[in-house]
Structures are given as structure tokens and as C-alpha cells.
Amino acid sequence: xxIPDSHAHCPVGHATALLGDRWSILxxxxxxxxxxxxxxxxxxxxxSDNTLTRRLAHLQNIAVLERDDASRARYHLTEAGRELAxxxxxxxxxxxxxxPIDQPLRAPSxxxxxxxxxxxxxxxxx
Length: 126
Hints:
Number of helices: 7
Structural class: mainly alpha
CATH class of the largest domain: Mainly Alpha
CATH architecture of the largest domain: Orthogonal Bundle
């Protein structure tokens, strides 16, 4: 993926250029919750096969997700992918404070809750 020149020397710009689309973040959220099969990602997210295939390939190319060598049917977050749990925790906490969110809320993964607690975020709303 080409990074726009305006983002090349900015860590936030670079990261959002690689991860900033809605589907990538949601795939990471689901992987943090334990989803690891193509059909399960598709079913829980309601994505088209074409979009899911492209997003999974992209996340593998940037080393956030990897496919199990033995089965090639399961996907796992890499260390870089698992380290996105605090990012999702902060996004979730920000959204609860500033955005209208329909109730009831979906429970976050244990990894996101743990990251939120480590960051000192209020986890009651998450």
C-alpha cells in the first residue's frame, strides 16, 4: 500500500493510512475476541467475500494478522496485532464519551478490557 507523502513522516498518518479503514479495525476487534476463521469473520461482520479477502490479505501484508501454516484456515493476530488492543480500548472509551451509541453495548474482548484497565480507562461503560 502506498502511503501518501503527507503521512510518510507522521506516525499517526502512517498508521491510519494502513489501518484506518473501518473493516480492518473491525477484523482486528473480532480477532481480539477470538474469531479466527474466514467464515466467522464474514458472518459476524456481514462483509462481502471480496472485501473480506482483500482486508485479510492486507492485514497479513502489514504483519498484523497471519494465517496458520498448518491449516491455512485460521487467522491469528501477530504481536503487532495484539498490541492494538489498547488502541481499541481508547477508541471505545472515547466513543462512549463523545458519540451517541445504541444500547445495549456489545461486550469488548478480554484483551481490550485488560488494556483499558492498564491504561487507567473507565471500563464501566466498555
